[in-house]
């Protein structure tokens, strides 16, 4: 199946990055958000990143202009009626996501593939909110999307081979490396990454070391490019908490219990870089 027109839903940090790489790879892209301010911010962040790439000599001015000409902002989900592929990148919450998928199932043509960028929620359950579970799939990009090479492709119980092969081909057209993952809580990436981040938060909570020193141990001692607390701030502490809850509920194992300090920060609205404060303070 050929994919020409794509809608990305959610113009937050992931959605704007996904829209950018699709537009840079020649697809026609609509970037949708229900919040006008978030949509403006997402469009501006794409323009800023492209301009920075031009300044640094990574791309030509023409590529920036061409990329932006392929991008259309959208505040109306009904615009999805012209999309061959929809990628949802809204809040990590099953109820909200299934509502959107059920609406998309009614709006989009029969051939349209409905993908979710969910970090951890079961694709099979999202697919069950539609009448086309064979065309529902997980396409999990990494943050920041324009930089990170990996895409986890998650097959729901009923995802068809044709849908899988189409998404695998699209990932290749975006110059990403795809891995195939079965539908289990946290998939592979977050099943391994999030318990490490959660343990770093416990280490801080128990007063074992300062936040800076915890990050230094993992950076200088394990050669991670970024410490786990900084990484948590970049991912978003609300997203980290959702993912830990999905692992905890999904496996029923207390080793996945979210750290109380993580819950406290999220309750305070300290969501990390996107809200200006998490473990660290951002301007
Ligand atoms: P974000 O909070 O930066 O952005 C979410 C955006 O969705 C907001 O602009 C919000 O206005 C919009 N939105 C919410 N409900 C909507 C609806 N019904 N219709 C249209 N727009 C709606 O979130 P972020 O970090 O971009 O995460 C989005 C998804 O990507 C989540 O499922 C998350 O688990 C996943 N993800 C996040 C990663 C990260 O590092 N933050 C990495 C990989 C996946």
Automatic annotation (TrEMBL):
NAD(+) binds at residues 10-15, 33, 92, 97, 119, 143, 274. Residues 186-282 form the 3-hydroxyacyl-CoA dehydrogenase C-terminal domain. GO terms for molecular function: 3-hydroxybutyryl-CoA dehydrogenase activity; NAD+ binding. Residues 6-183 form the 3-hydroxyacyl-CoA dehydrogenase NAD binding domain. GO terms for biological process: butyrate metabolic process. Pathway: Lipid metabolism; butanoate metabolism. Keywords: NAD, Oxidoreductase. The record marks 140 as: Important for catalytic activity. Pfam families: 3HCDH, 3HCDH_N. It comes from the Bacteria. Its EC number is 1.1.1.157. Belongs to the 3-hydroxyacyl-CoA dehydrogenase family. PANTHER family: 3-HYDROXYACYL-COA DEHYDROGENASE FAMILY PROTEIN, 3-HYDROXYBUTYRYL-COA DEHYDROGENASE. This is 3-hydroxybutyryl-CoA dehydrogenase. It comes from Oceanobacillus piezotolerans.
